[in-house]
Amino acid sequence: MYKLIALDMDGTTFNEEHEISNEVKDSLFYAISKGVKIAFISGREEFTVKEILKKLELDTYYGALNGSLISTTYSEVPKFVKSLEKKYIFDILDIVESNGFSPIVFLEDLIFTKDSNDEYVEIISKFISPKILRVKDIKEYIKNNNLEEKVLKIGICHEYDVLRGLEEKFTDTIKSEYTISFSLPFFVELMAKDTDKGSCLKEICRLNNIDLSETIAIGDGENDIPMLNICGLSVAMGNAMENVKKNVDYITDTNKNDGVAKAIRKFV
User: Fold this and answer.
1) Where do the DSSP E strands lie in 48-125?
2) Residue 128 has pLDDT above 80, yes or no
3) What is the DSSP letter of 182?
4) For residues 82 and 90, what is the distance between their CA atoms, to the nearest angstrom?
5) How far apart are CA 239 and CA 252, in angstroms?
6) 133-142, 164-173, 177-186 — which is least confidently predicted?
7) Which residues have CB under 8 Å from 93's CB, separation 6+?
8) What is the pLDDT of residue 263?
9) Cβ neighbour number for residue 266 with a 10 Å cutoff
10) Distance (Å, rounded) from C-alpha 129 to C-alpha 45?
11) What DSSP character marks residue 84?
């Protein structure tokens, strides 16, 4: 019997209107009624994840910013926080900005980017809450406010192929010191080394005394692959990126057609 279901949010639990349908919502509480725990593991910031869980009246564990932060719905203090190694943060920002991109910097309680008219920042801002703060100079803002050790994630929004080109410009040192992955086809993220949804699922299982073999993970993006690779039953959404679908145990319907609910009803 499965004891925990780990769910991605955007493109998975959320439909195309960025909402959780009644069918998916009902399936979550159906699983809970059967003794199965639900955990959200998302690339989204903590504030959004926590608010969603409160609206659902779902008291459970969650991982925000791809596992950089782990907590529960009503906890005042996170159970786990892992920030980026500060040594190369400014090198990363230099590479991103010198190539014409606008990096978005995520802290535990603050998100900021350069004050520009970047259309791609406007696109990703629809997925982000609270509102992104605009600053004159990102590096100076970090220095002046002593934020070097508080950065949890750096994100860049653009077309997928363009971001692949940017990824190739990161040095081998940066690639070895940080985790780089796509949470959406148009959003690439850098987190602390060994921080991903797989490590997040492991920690949530440890905190709940659940074996990984007793878990189901459902996702659609490249950043979901680490948790899909280690769970007991891996499920890709019908709308998942093709490289996500390659090595999963089961492919469910799309997020538009309540794929999460169909998977839960099938396996719980």
Assistant:
1) 61-64, 69-72, 80-81, 104-106, 111-114
2) no
3) E
4) 18
5) 9
6) 177-186
7) 103, 138, 139, 154
8) 98
9) 10
10) 7
11) P
Degrees (nearest 5) of the Cα angle 5, 10, 16? 120
- 249-258, Cβ contacts within 8 angstroms, sequence gap of 24 or more: 252/218, 255/11, 255/12, 255/13, 255/14, 255/15, 255/16, 255/220, 256/15, 256/16, 258/15, 258/21, 258/23, 258/24, 258/27
Residue type, 248: V
CB 42 within 8 A of CB 70: no
Question: For 201, left (φ over 0), alpha (ψ -120 to 50), or beta?
Answer: alpha
Q: Looking at residue 117, what is its pLDDT?
A: 81
Question: Tokens in use for 113?
Answer: 């980017």
- Strands (E) across the chain are located at 4-7, 37-41, 61-64, 69-72, 80-81, 104-106, 111-114, 133-135, 153-157, 178-184, 187-192, 215-219, 233-236, 250-251
For residues 47 and 129, is the Cβ–Cβ distance under 8 A?
yes
- The two three-digit tokens of residue 21, written as one number: 């349908």
SS3 2: coil
* Count of alpha carbons within 13 angstroms of residue 176, beta-carbon side: 3
Sorted by sequence, the CB contacts under 8 Å of residue 14 that are 6+ apart come out as 20, 255
Q: Which of 54-58, 84-88, 101-105, 118-122 has the lowest mean pLDDT?
A: 118-122
pTM of the model: 0.86
Digit-coded pLDDT (tens) for 61-82: 999 999 999 999 999 999 999 9
Q: Token pair for residue 88?
A: 């190369």
Judge whether 260 and 244 are in contact, CB under 8 Å: no
Q: Does residue 255 surpass a pLDDT of 90? A: yes
Task: Render pLDDT for 158-177 as a digit per residue (tens, 0 to 9).
Answer: 999 999 999 999 999 999 99
